[in-house]
Predict the 3D structure of the following.
Amino acid sequence: MSKVTIKLNEVISDNNKQTELWNELTYKEDDHKKNVITSMESLQHELRDSQRCNNDKMNDIEQLLNTLPRMSTPLNQNEGTGIPNPQVLNIENSQLKNEFSTSFHNLEPSMGQALLK
């Protein structure tokens, strides 16, 4: 065999190796793409399922809200405060006096006492 033939065979062998490597790389790349696509599709399904679940929960909440009794008249802002008429505050009312005293003492004791005197 001549040196040229030997070199040609080496080049052919190298080309064959390169082709094999290229094919392997392409296969791995394709396989990776398939895995990525499969993962993306799976995530899309999970997202859709989650969105459906949230929509179902929102519908449940809306239905529950619709079952609550409707008020015929608006609530008085002072309802439940124990203050019958907010325009007239009788400072001699012992309950109010105690509430003010406690509130002011929590902030600044001397200030609370001064305001109550």
Observations:
- The chain has a mean pLDDT of 75.
- The CA atoms of residues 67 and 84 lie 31 Å apart.
- The helical segments are 3-67, 94-107, 109-116.
- The two ends are 122 Å apart (CA to CA).
